[in-house]
Write a structure and sequence with these properties.
Rossmann fold, five-stranded antiparallel beta sheet, two-stranded parallel sheet, 58% helix, alpha+beta, Beta-Lactamase
């Protein structure tokens, strides 16, 4: 009888040991499986991010190279000079054919504008409806900047009037006898540009870069600064974000634009339900009845929160842009610099970002 009881105890103990080993093996296998899956996802994200970044880089370099190549061609410069000086009746037709070939090579919509030294239009592919006074005046301002680059360089800028996209603008001064006599401007269509670049995965690139940067504990917060248009890159940034901050001027156009942006963000929320607007930040505030009334209107009528802190208007911000320095280093005790620090403190408290 004791022998049987000993055997039973031995069998029970053996079963317990085997059961523990099975659970341990299962646990180890689960951990290895999860770690393997995580490693595969991380590596895949890094590979996809690198691949899509390379695709976007190559696209940007291609457009930039083709635009500069067209403007740098001797034939283009000579034809533009003839158009400006009126030396050849056939120059306009020659430029039309050359620009058509450029469009075929480049693959995106574009327009050309040739002006003389006084800003008078000598040739353009823009229609009369497209050729607004704002476009002409903006082009004149960019040509003035391009003048300082000399006749051998090409000046690049961004043009935005209305709609969802900004155009990329290339300007080349045209010389005759060593003197600048005019300018050739090429506008690459923003909508066509963004459609072409949308073949790359904006969302994947930005989101993967954010995740990879956060995983190594290098950053607590990542800020993505977006241009004032609802482009594919802007949508991708919203998809990658947790919260959105909308800078707004105390004027009617900014208030209307903010309402439109909030509506567009609501559309993006269908794909990224967690994104939200942290608040609107009133900038260029100064003591005036219209500014104070506008700010009060925003606080009472805005569909999203408005931060208590406002950024006061100061010339130090403009000076900092010309100095190519943050206003915090250019003029750390200016009103705007102090306001930005106060706003960051408010943001950290409201968003629960304070990690010491």
């Amino acid at each position: 009888m004791p022998k049987i009881q000993n055997e039973r105890r031995f069998q029970k103990k053996l079963r317990d040991i085997v059961r523990k080993y099975i659970v341990l093996v299962a646990l180890v296998c689960t951990v290895l499986f999860v770690a393997g899956q995580f490693a595969v996802v991380v590596v895949s994200n890094q590979i996809n991010a690198a691949r899509h970044l390379e695709q976007l880089k190559q696209s940007l370099m291609f457009f930039d190279r083709e635009s500069r190549s067209f403007l740098d061609r001797q034939e283009t410069a000579e034809t533009a000079r003839e158009i400006i000086l009126g030396d050849s009746p056939q120059a306009g037709e020659q430029m039309q054919n050359a620009f058509w070939k450029f469009g075929e090579r480049c693959g995106i919509s574009s327009e050309i504008l040739i002006v003389d030294q006084r800003g008078e239009i000598r040739y353009t592919s823009f229609s009369e409806r497209q050729l607004s006074s704002y476009l002409v005046n903006y082009n004149s301002a960019i040509c003035y900047n391009a003048k300082n680059t000399g006749t051998t360089d090409i000046y690049r800028a961004v043009y935005y009037d209305q709609g969802d996209y900004a155009d990329v603008l290339y300007v080349k001064p045209i010389a005759d006898g060593g003197e600048i006599v005019g300018y050739t401007s090429v506008f690459l269509s923003g909508s066509s540009w963004n459609f072409y670049l949308s073949k790359g995965n904006f969302d994947g690139v930005i989101t993967d870069l954010r995740d990879n940067a956060m995983e190594d504990d290098a950053y607590d917060v990542i800020v993505i600064d977006c241009p004032p248009n609802f482009s594919a890159a802007c949508v991708a940034a919203i998809n990658a974000a947790n919260s959105i901050i909308i800078p707004v001027l105390p004027d009617a156009f900014s208030a209307a634009g903010m309402d439109s942006l909030v509506y567009q963000i609501d559309g993006v929320r269908r794909l990224h339900p967690d994104v939200r607007v942290a608040g609107c930040l009133v900038t260029q505030w100064h003591r005036a009845d219209v500014v104070e009334d506008a700010t009060a209107h925003l606080r009472s009528e805005s569909p999203v929160p408005v931060f208590d802190t406002v950024i006061r208007r100061t010339d130090k911000v403009l000076e900092a842009t010309w100095a190519r320095e943050p206003v915090q280093t250019w003029s750390p005790f200016s009103s705007a610099a102090r306001d930005y620090r106060a706003w960051v403190k408010e943001l950290v408290q409201k968003e629960g970002l304070d990690n010491g």
